[in-house]
Amino acid sequence: MAITRKKRKKNPLKVLGKYFADFGVAVRDGDGFVKGSLGLMGLGYMGHKQVVKGVLVTLAEILFIVLCFVYFAPTLSNLVVTPAEREAITGTVEAEGDTYYGQTTIGAKQFVANDDPFAALTGGTDTSNTTDYDDSLLIIINSMISIFLIIMFIIFYIHNIKACYALQRQDEQGKHISTFGEDVKALFSSKFHLTLLTLPTLGVILMNVIPVMILIAIAFTNYTQAAMPPSYLLSWVGWENFASLFGGTVSKYFNYAFGRVLLWTLVWALLATLTCFIGGILLAALINSKNVVFPKMWRTFFVICIAVPQFVSLILVRNFFASHGIVNTIFSDIGFNGWLYEHGLIPTADSIPFLTDKNWAKFMIIMINIWVGVPYQMLIATGLLMNIPVGQVESAKIDGANKFQIFQHIIMPYILVVQGPALITDFVRNINNFNVIYLLTQDVYTTLDMNMAGASAKEVDLLVTWLFRLTNEDYNYSMASVIGILVFIICAAFTLISFARMMKGGMEEDLR
Q1: pLDDT beyond 60 at 418
Q2: Which pLDDT band holds residue 266 (cuts at 50, 70, 90)?
Q3: Both 311 and 381 in a single domain?
């Protein structure tokens, strides 16, 4: 019997502690070249027969020093400015704006119409008298880029000292020290995975890491319609925006709306994920059943549903269930609306408030999502059902298991193991499912709760649609950034915890 050794999980804190401990060992036990690398980073490579790499590292250090003077220092000096008579702000020089023919120009002096009869045609702007002003948003963006690059250089600096120490150990042990050409060749052979990961890593940095840092910075400012760069300088407000969501006295509306929107977001994500997942499995099992006639035809019908763009389906369905849509017209003609009204299920006999009442709207959103989501899950489940281990199923039948027991103990565990990561992805995606909520309720649902309206939220909003309203309707970028950070934390926490629990113990081993 083969004995397998279970891989021990590493503690992130211990890994981080060892990382810095190894750096300390390299500084303590390093020779003169390694210690010299603390000042001239390429010296450790040059002293251990890697001159080309040493020159490149030294050039990188010189570039960083130049950037410190020409980019990092000027940018970061404007990030937090505390004048004697003003609160902390980003930047010091505010833009000057003048209104001319109903338009406002920022940082430019206007022509007078009598002096220039063609001023209206040219926009009325005297570019020769442009004011030198600070743009708070650009300051924040450049500062976050500067902070990120500084952190990356610190990591590179520590890694450089450790690498130089490793070269020293190789030299002391008489091992071969690779040349620059050999290192380049290794990037296309034994270390080719590093080459392949370079572009994706840069993409993650540009599209995720730096934007998240900017988002965090904006969350601590007063970036709203009343203070819009570059017309105004942004001020740092500390935790005031976060306090508005968690019971602070700054705004009762945001605290009131946040709890309700968060609860509905989680309920929606759970129900939308489970209903489509279970519905897809049941539909796939039904179509693949031997008792179903023309299974290919039925499968084709559902594939066509996937081929139709989702926004087209959602807009059509929204019109179907409108107050004067086809569904309400049919129900009214057969007297169903009157029956619901007599039993107190709808407020008026004119129409069923499918998308205008908060409870009806939430129910309909989930039902409509089943219609647009089940066909996709059906295709995935069909592929899984075709790959169920036949040997286990036949053995279960021989042992006397019925169809329900086979489904419960063989089919479902197999599907959960294979599709478990996809379920987590679907849950996170549904937390950020903008299309279904927005396209079904925009210009249709109107909240009657003044506290919700005060925060630009609706009872049917998810956190992501609420964030969209704050940015595109109220221009409240600071509160939108706070909500964006919370959405990121919720999604990241759920994903990490779920994957950790799912992979713990090796669930796939149970099916072997």
Answers
A1: yes
A2: very high
A3: yes
